[in-house]
């Protein structure tokens, strides 16, 4: 059959890759003869196309198919005739011959034909068999794999095939097939597998169109089909084919509305129902959720609640996986999940407190990204990070620090002050790794924002505290902490690699801006480094000496000392020994080390030396060399990396600029005056450690300029620098010498006391004709002394005292007449002025009268004069000690004219006690101090004035810790158990710990010390303590249970520290000492039965305590104790003392600590049980006294309960220097007349005292601190017989001054010696202290016992701590313990805070206290 040619208009068709087929007009040629198909239908081929059968070659088949392809390509859907004509051919092309043809070109052409056939015959396909349709689409899908190779010659046809399928949406026909899912899965997998980076945008778009039409127009997405998409999101596949990931990502974004339910169902099956078999991707659900969330959060709208469910799973590993996932979701930069899904966010935050450690760890790690990407969430995270910063797991605490520091280094505004505070706390963590991370992190922040000022002044101000905090850590005991602080200082605070001028500018302004404790720490750091340098220098000197046994022993001791200054001293000992051997063998190494520690070594030379020594010791075959690391630690500590002559010169120039006003002081945040003073203090410290570096005319000229300044502190520091560094001034710099001498003379005569002291010492240190120079000062000063002008006495007394101490041979004799005629007779024994009667127990330095200041300096002059003589040939020391004792007995009022104020008396008591203690440091004077004088000195630590107790304890500790005082003085600390202020007891215990550890360490390190065990072994303090407590004025009745309780608490205060360890069977040794004392007599009063009974009673209490606290005390003591003969007689032959001086009942009461069965308030006329100290009472601002029932009765249980409740309140509500710091217990009387007190006359506010003492206390009303109140006198007829006033302790019987006899006769006051306490004012009969009330005698008290209700006014007591303990700000002064910054660490005691009150004779409220810290966890 022939066809007539037809004319067709065809549009331009795109064949892919920018190639087009254009058929504007076409003439059809007559078709070939039709051939019958297998089913009998006739197949018409396009014109010019012969029959395509398996009989022809592949090339011919391809050739003919190309013409068929062109024909179908040119056809459109409107060509009904052609469609009908070529229907058999379309069916033929779907035959097995074509679909399974081995030739890929044939298959491609057939696929293109089939695609066009679907286009032409759309919407109905010419193939009705479902199986055939399936085969056809699977066939076409297989051909799409050809898209993979874009460089293939056939790629255009593959592209045409894809484009045709996507445009027509041919695959939508498959929706009618039952197993269409197989086709779609195959299609999706094929497309995702062939996509690559060589494809252009059109290929991707057609693929997306093809797949999205299937998803969006179908009834749903099956799990298998969903897996074929999601599998491309898994990290492993994502890394293999990034383009497939991008394709899946865009596909999911395009079909989000349709595919979301399918995704939700999948996750529901896996997460909630736990059906992991529903998909091979079940194990990757969390990775998928992360990727899906990043693609479009709407894909997971229904999944997020399921995650909240999984967060609460019982499986820790499952929770961990969910936390890891959510951490990424919440922490990603553009995520707003936390704000959109608050319930999930709150649930996630709860995992910070998860019981599973890895979960908490993961939560903390997340916080860093969250802080950096979402600063708005910092508030939510802060509280959780706070809890985790105290996590029991070290790794978690460590990661909290890393989290905060990482965010802070990115941008300081990301971390608030509270977060930085957590890092600050962790610098004191118990684990070294955590402490190190916190310290290094803070150091990095400081360098970035303060040193380099990368974020401006506000950021620098925010972290300005870091420098102080890091230096405070130098107070810690750990050598690792100290070494790290030194490293931080050298690398971050003042980087050693800066140029000299820049480095010194950094140091200059750093020193000026440090707080006082940080300055002390920095000074201590330089001191320790200098000391270590001196140890190494001495070791090198030993190498120069000939070998001997003594030399080897000395070298060994020096090596042990050096090892203590390195990390891990145990291992360091071996390495130091090895290093010492290398030094002995290598002379060049020794010379390098000598150069490194020489005073003239510059910073650059030091750097070269360190590198050279390290190079010599390095071993290339050993990458990690612990020996080399240890040597580097040593070299870093001793190398002068900051200070040399050039650096000192730069510092002086900086200070000169500050003096001239041309420096950048204000820009650096310090005032010029502060900069000058701090700069000079810095130079003063460096003058101790690097004196040689100061020796230049330029430096000394600047210091002379400072001497002429008005600032007293500046001049004082300048003199001290001359004193430390001016040894060669006389020979090398005569011009400086001639200028300096008159200035020093002027300062010694008319400067401040401190300047005078330094001037005298400077003259003595640097001038060869010092005798002449000192005489020129001594003679005019000694002649011009005038007690009528005390303001002009202080400086001369200081100068004279130091001159007599430095040159005793020259000035001891002339000074004796000065002492006898002026110091004692004219100054100390006369009161020329009348002190202010304001009732204060302490006044600031500027308020102390000049006369009292002169008397204090006079006492110091006596001591310095005696210390210079160092002998007692003239018996001057005996006279001085008697004078000092009299001053203590008279409570500071030596003349007893009552003209001196109470605050001035406190100053003089402190001066007298300190003077005795100072004289005791000299052996020749210690021998003549009597036990009575020692006891008077000891009682100063229980003085009524807080500052006296505080300063005396500090002086005592300072002398003991340097091993300057005899061991007996350590027993004084036992009396601190009676101190009513918890801070003082804690400080005393800390001092004991430090002293005991130092003495034990000294004995270990010094083999020769075994010969002096009596004066060094801490356990030998026990006999001194027993004797001291036996003579305690509070201990008057050996059988009084309350007094025994006090003795027991004092004993345990000391024994608890001594018995921490049972070193060398020390428990048994102490027990044997107590038993041995019972075989002797009291040497102070050997023939007095009561004195010996008290001594034996204290021994029994001590034995009772030791036996109850230690099971090891019953072992045999390895050695017999030696008792001090000054305090105990020699044991008498045949003397046996097996009597028990305390009953079994008393023993039980002492050990169990049960409260007394008697009521709190006793009867008025009950005799005093002891000459006890006066009560410590705190008044409130609203009342001046308390009304007290004289015969109130209270049930025992209620009384005990009230006492327990008020015990802590009484302490925390105290103002430290109230005369009697205990809260008032107000009692409602049954029938009494109120006591009216006079107005308080004081202008002292409590705030000043609390600031001075460094403690936070509940604020009392202004004017109530250290005040004596004077109640109005009551008529004797109205109140009954006059009640005997409670006596002052510390004053023996003495004649009354004229004018006071009548008053004393009226009050009938018996004098009793002992410790000075807050006592009754003796101005008028019957006068009482603040808070004390006179209790009138009740009539017929026996017949009518009126029951009174005791009301404790809790509202008046402000409790500072949650458990009733006061909150303290601890001073971290290194004068005490290095651990003194945390006094509570050492406050352990068996004592309980209780108060037992009773009305004592005289109507005073007597408070017997047992006050020490509670056990803290």
Shape: elongated
Strand content: under 5%
Task: Report how far the terminal alpha carbons are from each other.
Answer: 110 Å
Spatial sequence of strands, sheet with the most strands? 1-4
Number of strand segments? 8
Mean pLDDT score: 75
Can you tell me about this structure?
Helix 41 packs antiparallel against helix 42, helix 42 runs parallel beside helix 44 and helix 43 packs antiparallel against helix 44. 45% of the residues are buried. The protein has 60 helices and 8 strands. 55% of the residues lie in helices and 2% in strands. The longest helix is centred in the middle third of the chain and has 29 residues. It has a two-stranded antiparallel sheet with strand order 1-4. The chain has a two-stranded antiparallel sheet with strand order 2-3. By secondary structure, it is an all-alpha fold.
Summarize the structure.
The chain is mainly alpha-helical and 1417 residues long. It is 55% helix and 2% strand.
Topology:
Elements: E1 7-8, E2 13-14, E3 20-21, E4 26-27, E5 35-36, E6 42-43, H1 58-74, H2 80-85, H3 87-93, H4 96-99, H5 104-120, H6 130-143, H7 155-168, H8 180-194, H9 201-217, H10 223-230, H11 235-240, H12 242-254, H13 256-272, H14 285-295, H15 304-311, H16 316-331, H17 337-340, H18 342-349, H19 357-373, H20 378-388, H21 394-410, H22 417-426, H23 432-451, H24 456-462, H25 466-472, H26 479-493, H27 500-513, H28 516-544, H29 549-564, H30 569-585, H31 587-597, H32 603-617, H33 626-638, H34 645-660, H35 672-689, H36 697-707, H37 712-725, H38 729-732, H39 734-750, H40 753-766, H41 770-783, H42 794-806, H43 808-828, H44 850-869, H45 876-889, H46 902-919, H47 923-926, H48 931-938, H49 946-961, H50 982-1005, H51 1013-1016, H52 1021-1030, H53 1041-1058, H54 1066-1077, H55 1089-1109, H56 1144-1152, H57 1196-1212, H58 1246-1253, H59 1276-1279, H60 1301-1307, E7 1394-1399, E8 1405-1410
Helix pairs in contact: 1-5, 5-6, 5-7, 6-8, 7-9, 8-10, 8-12, 9-12, 13-15, 14-16, 15-18, 16-19, 19-20, 19-21, 21-22, 21-23, 23-24, 23-26, 25-28, 27-34, 27-35, 28-29, 28-35, 29-30, 30-33, 31-32, 34-35, 34-36, 35-37, 36-37, 36-39, 37-40, 39-40, 40-41, 40-42, 41-42, 41-43, 42-43, 42-44, 43-44, ...
